[in-house]
Every structure is written in structure tokens, then in C-alpha cells.
Amino acid sequence: KSPVHLNTTSMGMFIPQLPKLYPDMLMNLQVYATEAPMLSLQMDVVEVGAQLGAKAFAIEPNGTQVPLFTLSVETRLSGKMWIVDEKLKANAMLDNITLTLASSEVGTFKMDALENVVKMGINLMGLPKLNALLGDGIFLPQMKQAQLVNPVLKLEKGFLVVSSDTKIVQTNRNFNTL
Where is each Lipid-binding serum glycoprotein C-terminal domain found (predicted)? Predict the structure, then answer.
């Protein structure tokens, strides 16, 4: 659940006509990808770009959703990846986010202040949660009779390399017995 509860009154600071047209109504925001995300491996960094759409609705007392506006959202994140404790871990940072008013049923409005609040929200709430998840990491695939020792992940332009020493794990099998 989001700690932010959108309503037409609070959005009035960004869209002055909104609380006049739809006073004190809750809002719903539907966010969706408009294109497949782009992942790019560069020297020592991973870059991710996403094109999103965000449709805003006012929720009438009877539950009907009234369309208000649609935003085009362009985001760019970058991050680092590394291997530790047999896990692939990472962290991310927001490089850029651009909001553009794609369509509006409530008239035009300036995007600068709204874009700044969205950036601040992502940096204060979204990225810490994402980085906590990325910091937990995911386990690397295990081999039955070998362990990775001192694995190193290196990012290059267009590819990544994982190199490691290995330790052979002895089993209790006796190969001389039938």
C-alpha cells in the first residue's frame, strides 16, 4: 500500500482547477508501461530506461472513475551490481524522470512542480525500498560438486563477465564400490 493518498484537494497545488471541478474526491492513478524497458550494460554500470503512462481518475462517491488526465513518463535509472555471499546484489539511483502532459480532461497545467515532487518521492520512498530489495540479492545458481570462491562480476559495454575460482566439494560416494 502507498503511504500517499491522492485526492483532488491535495493535487490542487499542482492543478488549481481540479478541486473546483471535483471537490474533495479520492483519486486513482493507473501506471503502465508504454514500451518494453531498455536495459543497457555499460562499463561498470547498468542503465535502465522505461517509458510509462499514468492515467489519473477522480473517484465519485458512487465509485465511478472519472478520467482527469494522462501523463507520459520517461525514466532513466542506473546502478551497480556485485557478487557477495553467493548472491548477486545491486543498487540503483534515479538519473532522470520527465513528466509530460499527454492529454487532459481538466485543462492544461504546469508540470514542473509535480515533476519535482515525483522525483523527491522516488528518491525518498521508492529508491530506498528498491535498494533494500536489490541489497538482499538473489542467489546465484549452485553447482552440485563445486562452489564459487571469490567470484567477481565485471560489467563491460554490452555484456557482463563473472569469473571465479572454484572449490570442489567432496561427496560421500565411494567410486570403487559397485
Answer: 1-164
φ and ψ of 136, to 5 deg: -65, -35
pLDDT digits (tens, 9 = 90+) for 7-46: 999 999 999 999 999 999 999 999 999 999 999 999 999 9
* Spatial CA neighbour of 56 closest among 44, 45, 74, 70: 70
Is residue 54 within 8 Å of 29, Cβ to Cβ?
A: yes
What is the CB neighbour count within 10 angstroms for residue 45? 13
pTM: 0.82
Provide the residue ranges of all domains of the chain, joining segments of one domain with +: 10-140
Residue closest to 96 by CA, chosen among 129, 126, 73: 73
Helix and strand numbers, DSSP H then E, in the chain = 3, 8
Longest CA span, the chain = 86
